Each structure stands twice: as C-alpha cells, then as structure tokens.
Amino acid sequence: MVIDVNADLGEGYGIWQLGDDLALLDVVTSANVACGFHAGDPLIMRRVCAAAVERGVAIGAQVSYRDLAGFGRREMDVAAPELTAEILYQLAALDGIARAEGGRVAYVKPHGALYNRVSRDPVQAQAVVEAVRAYDPSLPLLTLPGSVVHDVADGLTVVAECFADRAYTPAGALVSRREPGAVIQDREAVIQRAIKMAVEGTVVAVDGSEVALKARSICVHGDTPGAVALAQSVRSALAEAGVALESFA
What we know:
This protein is α/β, with parallel strands linked by helices.
C-alpha cells in the first residue's frame, strides 16, 4: 500500500500568514502551492518552493479562480479561453520560481471553488485540461475520484485524491463548506478516516453509507486549527498501518 499526503501551502499574502508552511513540509510528500490568484505572492511562493526542494517534497501548482478577497472559494463563471489562460499564467509563474530554486512543478491541483466546479462541469474541466496540455502534458492533474476531469483529460494523467478532514456526500462529492460539519476537526476521527481511505479505499458518508474512493493521495488541510499536529498524527498512523508514504509525482 502506497499513499501520498498533500497539503495546501503558501496561502499567506504579504504580511498575512496562514498556517505553518515549513512545519507541514516536514510532514507531507506533496505540496500544493498557491499561485497568487486565491492566495500567495512571489516571495511566499519562492520561500515555499525553496523549502520543498530542500526537503524533497513534490511541488504542485494550486491554481484557482482570480479571487483573493474570497480565498478562491467563490464560484465564478469564467469563459473557457480566459480560464485556460489564467491557469496557464499561474502554472508558468510557479514553475519559473520553482526552477529558480532547483525544482519544478510536478503536478497541478485546482483550489476551492474551481476544484469543485471542474469535478462536475466538463466545460471548465476542459479549460483546465487545455492549460495543462499547453504547458506540459506530462503533468498529472489531482482531482476527486468521480470528477469529470477523468472524462475530458484526453491522454493527460489524472490522479485521484481524498480528504481525511472533509465530510462526503453519498455520491462521493465533498460536502459544501457552507454546510455544518463539512470540515472534520476531531483528531481521532480524521486519523481513522485516513487509515480507512488508504487501506480499504472507502469513506463513510454523512448518511452512514460507505463510499468507494480508490485514491492515490490524501489531502490534509493546513489552514485548520492544530493542522501541523494533525498532519503528523495522520502520517504516523498511516505508517503504523503499513502504508508507505510516497508522492505520486
């Protein structure tokens, strides 16, 4: 059993900081780095990339809608050509910084509202796919197991991920953050869900049903209370369960 542990990093902006990037980089095997559209700025991007390279952590471009005020969590109707260009812009910016630090972008993961939108909207999913293909068709795309990205990828590598600290609907989608209980903060519950996801490939949905996931990567969020300690606990528990930790990228 092999699993990747990823987290969203570099989500500060200017003097405002969110989460402990350096501490999380000691835990995760892949880092989803904000590219400046929902969070992050050039200095933060450079610091995170340098630290990831130093630790041997895979760097992913966490692309999003242009929505700093809403942290990329507000759904937007962006024309496909414009969305493709904006994804390409973010990807190229982060990759340039990563290469200057001796690394490179190894995969792409949409963030927030864009992540949820492309899981069900083939037009916007195709726009993201086209940006990745235009930049580097060898880059994997990280998304939900049931995302329509799988259907429109047309030769691109698509990697399925699951969320240890998010609630699921019976259909295998993430419960909206607008709903109570969407983010699970109970430490033991998150740990047990992570083990179940990695070992059995399933998760218990909000109605008590069991949903198949078959994911290669587990996401632990870095912006929740006690995120670092929780991520450390998840990593340790996975290792104790006999799961090898290795980036998919």
